[in-house]
Amino acid sequence: MIVVMNPGAKEKEIKKITDKLKEMGYGVHLSTGENRTVIGVIGQRREEAAQAMEAMPEVEQVVFITRPFKLAGREFHPEDTVIKIGKVTIGGPKLTIMAGPCAIENEEQLMQAAEAIKAGGAEVLRAGAFKPRTSPYAFQGLEKEGLEFLKDVRSKTGLLIVTEVMDQFTVQEVAECADIIQVGARNMQNYYLLRELGKIRKPVLLKRGLSATIEEWLMAAEYILSGGNFEVILCERGIRTFEPYTRNTLDLSAIPLVKQLSHLPIIVDPSHGTGLSGLVPAMSRAALAAGADGLLIEVHPNPQEALSDGPQSLTPGQFQSLINELKGVALSVGKLI
Description:
This protein has eleven helices and 14 strands. The chain has helices at about 10-25, 45-55, 105-120, 145-155, 170-175, 190-200, 215-225, 255-260, 270-275, 280-290, 315-330, and strands spanning about 1-5, 25-30, 35-40, 60-65, 85, 90, 95-100, 125, 160-165, 180-185, 205, 230-235, 265-270, 295-300. By secondary structure, it is of the alpha/beta class. The strands form three sheets. It has an eight-stranded parallel sheet. Strands 2-3-1-4 form a four-stranded antiparallel sheet, with helices on one face.
């Protein structure tokens, strides 16, 4: 349930209610807007607790949340969540561009990609040190050596880093390197990992699973939120359908639907969403028009030589051209790049 405080409730009044809820055995989370504060109550539904809250003069109303995702839903948090990392914001009026190679192959390749995407206007470098692959014989990434390369590139370029974590045992190691920790599609329902990410205080980029429904995706986010980490970024990266002409089917309808259901920012990965570099520009434009808060785009200095996902990667020149095209689309929906 959520407890809606009276407009203009004072800090002392809010503390009185939160203390009372804690005495009843509930967890609480505050959501403070311009005019009022909403208290998210975490725990088993009990009618007597709701009645006790409704009797408090500081409380305007008590509302039971009907959807299974409590903390991720707009019933609890009506206003959009904006995540700030230094000078970069995700979810606000400025679109966030994350770009870079699928996998770190060597230090030179990573630096070339970083310099190219920074020149093109990206603020976040995406690159995988750990690479979950369908085939055990495919390139699996440089792992710990790749993390060291990322640290070095960040110090030299000033770009933020987003990179993938594989399991709950390496969360701290990846967190030392990454500004944003990515949960890949294959790990979306790795609940041990999600619980561990709920304990840290660092943004998490949660990709939609290969065949996950929107509710399952938001429930995965709920695991992280319920652990106390409220900096979750959703990423639509395409789902598996019967269509063989693309790697996945990019579900653009998920963007406005998630915006209705949840306050969390959502970005789109058109590279994995299609698997074809020639489709990335059109899907990027469409994603912004649909209301995405940003894009995650694969860029490689030499896509034809890439050890992973070359066919869906843009060259630096193609990336620069795309960003120039997107500026007009962004303006048309009231956003900036």
